[in-house]
Amino acid sequence: MTAMTSTASSAPAPRPVLNRRLAEFGTTIFAEMSALALRTGSINLGQGFPDTDGPEEIREAAVRALRDGRGNQYPPGPGVPELRAAIVDHQRRRYGLTFDPDTEVLVTAGATEAIAAALLGLLEPGDEVVALEPYYDSYAACIAMAGGTRVPVTLRPSEESDERPGDTGGDRRFRLDLDELRDAVTDRTRLLLINTPHNPTGTVLTRQELTAIAELAVERDLLVVTDEVYEHLVFDDAEHLPLASFPGMRERTVTIGSAGKTFSFTGWKVGWVTGTAELVTAVRSAKQFLTYVASGPFQYAVAEALALPDTYFEGFRSDMQAKRDLLSAGLIDAGFTVFRPTGTYFVTTDIRQLGEADGLAFCRALPERAGVVAIPNAVFYDHKEAGAPYVRFAFCKRTEVLADATERLRRAFAH
Question: Do the beta carbons of residue 407 and residue 365 sit within 8 Å?
Fold first, then answer.
């Protein structure tokens, strides 16, 4: 007599609720660390948002738009004409780049949507995307959602420089190995995903590095998506050079910008894409099925912000550079090894001098040890071991907050 097989034992295993492309992505580290900051009452130097608002006249411009009924209903799909014209004028004045506001500019719900729409619109399943590692965490998720394969090229620390007491990091920086970048490109590579100024390392790619990237893209006929949201936050002798301005690059580059980082209104979520009409149409084809439109009244305010005089941008950069120096000096005094950033508003540190090696464990314990929250860089790496000893702190906070945080870190770690 044949034994009966139960229905339960023959049933297929239940299918996971989350689709397999996103299975590797859990709750973001920013949500975890921000919740930890709230629970412990710690100073949050983890997530990159300012603790003060931007210019009062720009905030009032948003209020005026609301009261005047501009943007309270769906704005045009590509963005309001005033903002598209302001973006074109900004690119022309700053970089000598010319775009058609009607066909070569697209306003997005922040840079994060711009990245998602660009990758969804330009990739086919199986396409390879070469990205600089460590990378902003949405890059990996967006590549996965588009069915692409990410190929990381790791930025590596330069040789340590001699430092004097009180120095803010010497000449340490994370550098791009151009040979490694070239070797990463295969016949399956569709595009390069470039971020400069670079989050989280604070590196600003040099003219030599960008020239090599441009030559590689032209030689291998690659598209390039460049995340340039920190374009106005470059320090010391660094210079932001848009990749689209290099020979042969305008026709193959999607450039992403954002108002949040430049004007300290991150909650407004106003970003944009510039590129050729063909490229922008491809991005818009995906974007229209994401948010369609967003941030209506804020678009009018950002249009006014982009027309602010150069003194605003210079003052903003100078203020952030002073905060960089304050936090960097405090971290060095506390015993951290510091990589002084030449862009963004993040400082990357090496914790091995403190006798630590696991950045994730260190950051989870830091609120209880010092009353400060930071972000472990390892979450921005595919090669986790390469990022394990590095921890990122944000300095886009009030001076008194940074001073308090560095004093807490000194008490916890300085000997």
Answer: no
If one looks up domain 56-309 in CATH, what number appears?
3.40.640.10
Helix locations, 236-356, DSSP H: 260-263, 277-287, 296-306, 310-333
**Strands, E, within 323-402: which ranges?**
337-339, 346-350, 372-373, 375-376, 390-394
Residue 394's pLDDT band (boundaries 50, 70, 90)?
Answer: very high
Tell me the pairing of strands 105-108 and 390-394: unpaired
- What is the C-alpha separation between 301 and 70, in angstroms, rounded? 10
**For the chain, which residues make up each domain, given as ranges?**
20-54+311-413, 56-309
| Structure confidence by residue, pLDDT tens digits, 347-370 | 999 999 999 999 999 999 999 999
Coil vs helix vs strand at 17:
coil
Transcribe 98-151 into DSSP letters.
Answer: ---TTTSEEEESHHHHHHHHHHHHH--TT-EEEEEES--HHHHHHHHHTT-EEE
Per residue in 97-119, pLDDT (tens digit) is: 999 999 999 999 999 999 999 99
Q: CA 307 to CA 375: how far, in whole Å?
A: 34
Those residues whose C-beta lies under 8 Å from the C-beta of residue 183, and which sit 6 or more positions away, are none
Backbone CA torsion sign across 253, 150, 197, 107? positive
- Pull the structure tokens for residue 307: 């027309």
Write down the number of H helices and E strands in the chain. Answer: 15, 15
228-278 pLDDT per residue, tens: 999 999 999 999 999 999 999 999 999 999 999 999 999 999 999 999 999
Between the alpha carbon of residue 272 and those of residues 55, 113, 258, 280, 350, the distances in Å are 20, 9, 6, 10, 34
CB 143 within 8 A of CB 197: no
- pLDDT tens sequence across 184-226: 999 999 999 999 999 999 999 999 999 999 999 999 999 999 9
Q: Which helix (H) or strand (E) holds 85?
A: helix 81-95
User: Which secondary-structure segment (H or E) carries 39?
Assistant: helix 29-40
Class of domain 20-54+311-413: alpha beta
Mean pLDDT of the chain: 93
C-alpha–C-alpha distance, residues 375 and 377, integer Å: 6
